[in-house]
Design goal:
Blueprint: H1 2-26, H2 41-50, H3 53-85, H4 87-100, H5 109-116, H6 120-144, H7 148-156, H8 162-197, H9 204-213, H10 217-245
Length: 250
C-alpha cells in the first residue's frame, strides 16, 4: 500500500508540474519562444527523428560518452588503486593532485581544441577528465577503508605480494566503494557531454546549441529530455549490474 501511495503521489506531482508548465506559456506569463509548452515537444521530437537528426546526434554523443567514461574510469581506478595501496606513490603525487583537482573540466576545452582539434577525440578527453577525479578518489578511499585486519590475515595465509593482496583482499573489499564512484561518474559524464560538444563536435550538445541560436527551444527541450532518458537507462542498468556484482553481500 505504501508503494502504491508513493507511486500515486509521484505521478500526481509530475502531472501538476506539467500542467503548470503548460499553463505558463498558454496564459502569456512566459514567452513561448523562451519556454515552449510540453504539448509541443512530441511534434518537435518526431520532426527530429523523421529528418534523421535525432538518431545521428544521439549515436555521436553515446560514442563520446562511452569512450570517455571507460577511459576516465579506467585511469581513475588504476591510479586510485596505486595511491591507495602504496603510500610512497600517494606522497609523490599529492601536490600534483592538489594542483590539478580544482581545475574544472571546462577549463581544459582550449587545450582539447589545440591538442585534438574540433574532433570527437576532444570531446572524449573532456569527458574523461571529468570522470577521472570522481573515480580516482572513490577508489583511493575504498582501498584505504579496507579493514587492516583482513590484510594481516591474508599475509598470515601467504598472500604477501602486492598482486595477491590486490586480487584476493583489496579489490573484492573495495568494490562496493568503487561502484559508488562509478555510478556518480555516470551522471558526471552526461553533464560533460554537452560541455564537450558545444564547441562544435557533432552530438546532442552541438544540436542543442544550434537550436538555441534559432530560438527553437522545443528542440532544446527534446534533447534535454533525451539526455535524461538515456541517463535513466544507463543508471538503471548499472544498478542492476551493481546488485549482481554484490550479490555475495545478500
Amino acid at each position: 500500500m505504501t508503494l502504491f501511495r508513493s507511486t500515486l503521489l509521484a505521478a500526481l506531482g509530475l502531472a501538476a508540474f506539467l500542467l503548470v508548465w503548460e499553463a505558463m506559456p498558454r496564459l502569456g506569463l512566459v514567452n513561448p519562444a523562451f519556454l515552449p509548452p510540453p504539448s509541443t515537444i512530441p511534434a518537435a521530437f518526431l520532426r527530429e527523428v523523421s529528418l534523421g537528426i535525432w538518431p545521428e546526434a544521439v549515436l555521436s554523443s553515446l560514442s563520446h560518452y562511452v569512450v570517455g567514461l571507460v577511459a576516465g574510469a579506467g585511469a581513475g581506478i588504476g591510479m586510485g588503486l596505486l595511491s591507495g595501496m602504496f603510500r610512497p606513490f600517494e606522497a609523490a603525487t599529492a601536490w600534483v593532485v592538489r594542483l590539478l583537482r580544482p581545475i574544472p573540466g571546462l577549463a581544459w576545452v582550449p587545450f582539447a581544441i589545440i591538442w585534438f582539434g574540433v574532433q570527437p577525440s576532444a570531446a572524449v578527453f573532456i569527458i574523461a577528465v571529468g570522470v577521472f577525479w570522481i573515480v580516482f578518489f572513490a577508489t583511493q578511499g575504498a582501498v584505504r577503508g579496507v579493514d587492516r585486519d583482513l590484510i594481516e590475515v591474508a599475509q598470515a595465509f601467504g598472500f604477501r605480494s602486492a598482486w595477491s593482496r590486490l586480487t584476493k583482499i583489496l579489490l573484492p573489499a573495495a568494490t562496493p566503494g568503487i561502484l559508488v564512484g562509478l555510478r556518480t561518474a555516470l551522471g558526471q559524464a552526461w553533464m560533460a557531454v554537452v560541455a564537450a560538444e558545444i564547441f562544435g563536435v557533432p552530438g546532442v550538445g552541438q544540436r542543442m546549441m544550434q537550436a538555441s541560436s534559432l530560438l527553437s527551444t522545443d528542440i532544446v527541450v527534446v534533447y534535454m529530455l533525451t539526455m535524461a532518458a538515456l541517463y535513466g537507462l544507463f543508471d538503471s542498468a548499472f544498478v542492476a549490474l551493481q546488485g549482481w556484482l554484490l550479490r555475495w553481500r545478500a
